[in-house]
Amino acid sequence: MTSHRRLLLFSLTAAITCGTSAPAQSKNRQQPPLLAARNAVVDLESGKSTRLPGIKGYVVRADARNDSVFDVANLNVDVATSTQVRTTKQHVLLETLSGKAKWSVALESLALASQPGVHDRRLTKERVLVKSAGSIIALERATGNVAWRQDHGRTQAWTVRGDLLVTVTQDTDGSVLRVMSLQNGALASQVKLEAQPQAIVIGDHGIAVASQQQLRVFDRFGPELFKQTGSGTVVAHPDGWIVLRDATLSLLDRQGDAMWHAKMTKPKFLNSHELHVTATGNVILTTHQFMSDSGVFCQAFDGKSGEQQWTRQLAGLGIPHSKYFHHAYARSRKGVVDIISQGSGGAFVVTLDAGSGAQAQRIKVQ
């Protein structure tokens, strides 16, 4: 990934309803499925999108699951509760989307006022994490009180899923991977890395660390399960790990042995790939060109056999590619797959039948 693309991806935003807190949901009525795309939120039932004024940039997806919390570098939004966390030069605030503060904590009281880099935070179901140049502080989401603090040095990367926080820090003798409890900050394990990771993926059965040279997979509490030479795109699967290397898609079991290989259809001029695993274990591969309005090429593979189930090309917006940025990925719900495409010229969401790839709806994000 180029530095230009990385900057675009991680200087972006997430959004949801329009300016006021969402009304309480009836016990008998579930909240409609919502997706964030570009600088708006899409209601997948009504097909309507709501754009938030003052929000610029693009949404970066949450994790592989259908989590309601969108974790983005400069703004974090919880779709389910219409809540966001942000930091200013002096404070970290939890507030409604209309700007009403639930609590505010002075960075000076956290001994962060003089440290650079207080621009990264994560909103989880019970914690608000704030990262500075050398510290990670977890605040209680309900009150803003400090739950725990870790001072492990300069954090190069971090990711959150479920009850775990995984960080990569730069120590005097290289990079160190640390696995911590999100609840209390307790250190579960730490491992010295041989190379700077490009991606960290937390699964229910382990943690995958992908670099340019190799793929290493660890138990969630420390021991290395396997190591392989070569880079690739990785996502967790119920039976192990899905890895895309060049044009070959593979399912590795939890010990790193291949259960199947499949050749992906490789469209011309499309060079950016995203993987998604559905609740049933099937694999959705989306391919797009990140510098043009290419549309999105979608492929579905059976999670047990690797057999390709269907392919579908989704048209773009018909916009010239000059000064263009494009990011596309998939998420899934029961029986359907939602493809989110966001770019310089606009965004759209397409819902496909998970079994056949037939298009159920296409929503243009306003």
Which secondary structure elements does this structure contain, and how are they paired or packed?
Elements: H1 3-10, E1 34-37, E2 40-43, E3 49-51, E4 69-70, E5 76-78, E6 83-87, E7 91-96, E8 101-106, E9 120-123, E10 127-131, E11 136-140, E12 146-150, E13 154-161, E14 164-171, E15 174-181, E16 187-192, E17 199-203, E18 206-210, E19 214-218, E20 224-229, E21 233-237, E22 240-245, E23 248-253, E24 258-263, E25 272-277, E26 283-288, E27 296-301, E28 308-314, E29 326-333, E30 336-343, E31 346-353, E32 359-365
Antiparallel strand pairs: 1-2, 2-3, 4-5, 5-6, 6-7, 7-8, 9-10, 10-11, 11-12, 13-14, 14-15, 15-16, 17-18, 18-19, 19-20, 21-22, 22-23, 23-24, 25-26, 26-27, 27-28, 29-30, 30-31, 31-32
Detailed description of the structure:
The chain is mostly beta strands. It contains 1 helix and 32 strands. The strands form 8 sheets. It has a 5-stranded antiparallel β-sheet, with no helix packed on it. A 4-stranded antiparallel β-sheet has the order 9-10-11-12, with no helix packed on it. The N terminus is likely disordered.
Which labels suit this protein?
mainly beta; globular; 32 strands; five-stranded antiparallel sheet; 2% helix; 366 residues; four-stranded antiparallel sheet; 50% strand; disordered N terminus
Summarize the structure.
The chain is an all-beta fold. The chain has one helix spanning 3-10; strands at residues 34-37, 40-43, 49-51, 69-70, 76-78, 83-87, 91-96, 101-106, 120-123, 127-131, 136-140, 146-150, 154-161, 164-171, 174-181, 187-192, 199-203, 206-210, 214-218, 224-229, 233-237, 240-245, 248-253, 258-263, 272-277, 283-288, 296-301, 308-314, 326-333, 336-343, 346-353, 359-365.
